[in-house]
């Protein structure tokens, strides 16, 4: 079963989450701060990180950057901050999902399953690369390239681009993108999709190619510069 790293300075929260995950047969490793989290991350190589944002010393946002500098791993933020701007910031720094305290164990487990499933689905064994102009998506290796240069994407970002490239002339609503990239269980806001698209665009900036076109009032489609 997948291995999950739980990082939270609250002993009670860690124990509740650890118990719930282990009941679902996940392998769980816990840490209470950034130092112990980095040690556990390197030693156990988790498949998913549940990461509290508000912690003493190095907070969860900065810790997520440190973890991602070592390896691209799915991250679900857990926070007592419930403002939309906090969710957006968490997603813009690379989070795959965001859960607010207090949360139901059932909701947390559903989000864990959804994020892990998207991560596993990145390996679409045997599929030929999907080429759109200067954009190429390696569906088997789950890598994106533009003009031959690899662009590092998270699992969610790759899936969003894959959905758009799969029907290059179609305008996708935010709901359609959410379902296509994250599955039926995903329940997120329009701002969350917008944040993921913004991150995709930012990662392609150096190439001079914007792979996503905004269709105001409707949603998004693959940009004309790579749609040919």
Report on the architecture of this protein.
The chain is of the alpha/beta class. The chain has two domains: 118 residues, 3-Layer(aba) Sandwich (Rossmann fold), CATH 3.40.50; 98 residues, Winged helix-like DNA-binding domain superfamily/Winged helix DNA-binding domain (Arc Repressor Mutant, subunit A, Orthogonal Bundle). The chain is 44% helix and 20% strand. The protein contains nine helices and eleven strands. The strands form three sheets. A five-stranded parallel β-sheet has the order 2-1-3-4-5, with helices on both faces. It has a four-stranded antiparallel β-sheet with strand order 6-7-8-9, covered by helices on one side. Strands 10-11 form a two-stranded antiparallel sheet. A hairpin with a 2-residue loop joins β6 and β7. α4 packs parallel to α8 and α6 packs across α8. It is elongated, with a radius of gyration of 18 Å.
Subunit arrangement of the protein: single chain
**Unreliable parts:** none
Shape: elongated
Strand order of the largest sheet: 2-1-3-4-5
The fourth-level CATH homologous superfamily of the largest domain is Response regulator
Specify Rg, calculated over alpha carbons: 18 Å
CATH class of the largest domain: Alpha Beta
Write a brief caption for the model.
The chain is an alpha/beta fold and 228 residues long. It is 44% helix and 20% strand.
Topology:
Blueprint: E1 3-7, H1 11-23, E2 27-31, H2 34-44, E3 48-52, H3 60-70, E4 75-79, H4 84-92, E5 97-100, H5 105-120, E6 130-132, E7 135-138, E8 143-146, E9 149-151, H6 155-166, H7 174-182, H8 190-204, E10 212-215, E11 219-222, H9 224-227
Parallel strand pairs: 1-2, 1-3, 3-4, 4-5
Antiparallel strand pairs: 6-7, 7-8, 8-9, 10-11
């Amino acid at each position: 079963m997948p291995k999950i790293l739980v990082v939270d300075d609250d002993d009670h929260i860690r124990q509740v989450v650890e118990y719930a995950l282990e009941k679902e047969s996940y392998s769980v490793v816990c840490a209470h701060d950034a130092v112990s989290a980095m040690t556990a991350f390197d030693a156990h190589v988790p498949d998913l990180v549940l990461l509290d944002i508000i912690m003493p010393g190095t907070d969860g946002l900065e810790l997520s950057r440190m973890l991602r500098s070592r390896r691209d791993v799915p991250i679900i933020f857990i926070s007592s901050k419930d403002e939309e701007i906090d969710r957006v910031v968490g997603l813009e720094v690379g989070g795959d999902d965001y859960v607010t305290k207090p949360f139901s164990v059932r909701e947390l487990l559903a989000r864990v399953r959804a994020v892990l499933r998207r991560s596993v689905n990145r390996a679409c064994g045997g599929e030929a690369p999907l080429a759109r102009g200067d954009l190429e998506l390696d569906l088997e290796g789950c890598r994106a390239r533009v003009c031959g240069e690899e662009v590092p994407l998270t699992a969610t970002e790759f899936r969003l681009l894959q959905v758009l490239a799969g029907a290059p002339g179609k305008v996708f609503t935010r709901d359609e993108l959410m379902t296509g990239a994250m599955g039926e269980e995903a329940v997120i806001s329009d701002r969350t999709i917008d944040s993921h698209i913004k991150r995709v665009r930012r990662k392609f900036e150096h190439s001079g190619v914007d792979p996503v076109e905004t269709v105001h009032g409707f949603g998004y489609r693959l940009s004309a510069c790579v749609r040919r």
